[in-house]
Amino acid sequence: QVQLVESGGGLVQPGGSLRLSCAASGTIFSIDTMGWYRQAPGKQRELVATITSGGRTNYADSVKGRFTISRDGTKNTVYLQIDSLKPEDTAVYYCNAHINRWGLEADYWGQGTQVTVSS
């Protein structure tokens, strides 16, 4: 079994910062791309940022320059540093990982962590 556990969400004022973490655990051979997605009320889930095992990153245009994705391969953990938060960043943030379990590859999702930006 594989589990992704997110942490770090919360209530923050506009202009503030948060750091989200997502740790993968279980029977894992390797992890390819890890990423963050978000879903605001009444909207579809959207890509925020991804990072490959080689460190190549990709960001949604709406977060470029404000969000930074990183990962620690030794801990099977991906991070999302969120700066200059805006009210429109309010959403549930989900972690995603493409995991290889000795020939069985699949995408796994975390349970989500709420980020609320409000004064």
Structural overview:
The protein is 0% helix and 60% strand. The protein is mostly beta strands. Strands 2, 4, 5, 6, 9, 10 and 11 form a 7-stranded mixed beta sheet that branches. A 4-stranded antiparallel beta sheet has the order 1-3-8-7, with no helix packed on it. The protein is elongated.
Write the topology of this structure.
Elements: E1 2-7, E2 10-12, E3 18-26, E4 30-39, E5 46-51, E6 57-59, E7 67-72, E8 77-82, E9 91-101, E10 104-109, E11 113-117
Parallel strand pairs: 2-11
Antiparallel strand pairs: 1-3, 3-8, 4-5, 4-9, 5-6, 7-8, 9-10, 9-11
Based on the model shown, name its key terms.
119 residues; mainly beta; seven-stranded mixed beta sheet; 11 strands; 0% helix
Gist of the model:
This protein has 119 residues and is mostly beta strands. It is built from no helices and eleven strands.
Number of helices: 0
Gap from first CA to last CA: 40 Å
Oligomeric state: single chain
Query: Class by helix and strand content?
Result: mainly beta
Main sheet makeup? 7 strands, mixed
Q: What would the average pLDDT be, to the nearest integer?
A: 96
Unreliably modeled segments: none
